[in-house]
Write a structure and sequence with these properties.
This protein has one domain: Rossmann fold (3-Layer(aba) Sandwich), CATH 3.40.50.360. The protein has 205 residues and is an alpha/beta fold. It has a five-stranded parallel β-sheet, with helices on both faces. Helix 1 crosses helix 7 and helix 2 crosses helix 3. It is built from seven helices and five strands; from the N terminus they run βαβααβαβαβαα. The radius of gyration is 18 Å and the shape is globular. The two termini are 19 Å apart.
Amino acid sequence: MPALLKIDVSPRRERSVSRQLGQAIAADWLMRESSGRIIERDLAGPRMPLVDWEWIDAIYVQPDNPTPEGRALMRFSDVLIDELFAAEEILISTPMYNFGMPAALKGWVDQVARLNRTFTAEYKGLLLGKKLNAIITSGGNYEPGSYYSKMDFCSGHLRAIMAFIGITDTRIYMAGDTHDITQGKITMSDYVSKHAPKLIEAFAR
């Protein structure tokens, strides 16, 4: 049974543009993969543990004898990594904050980019044969070739870290100018309707 790991980042819930665009892509995926299942990971849920000394101690210093707190941190990281291994395709829908990843997405990256789980000591990625589609929403326009594209430190970072852990089949869609919604120039529904067909075409295999 094929599986799609759907990762949502925005804390805006039903008011989130990225979440609504992600839902449109997930619905299209289910239409094409009628026997498939979706694994949902909401990064706006419980706060993502930070990589602190307890995490480093459990994962790298004494992984065979962690403290109870370290063991819990290791289990949480294992769950996130297991979700990646369980899916053939990954869909990340995220806003861009201050030209980069939101803290929740960076926290997830730090949990899943892990020695001997997703990459080797020789820096070889272990998550092979998977596909990543990512939607990045932003108030301004950061599409390649646009005036502000040089300030996009989100898509390149995401593409690089995913390649590092073995996921090189990546497509990223920049959904910009969401400030048109807040300024009343376009409704949320019309914005989603405008971009959803472009997303489906961009992510087509």
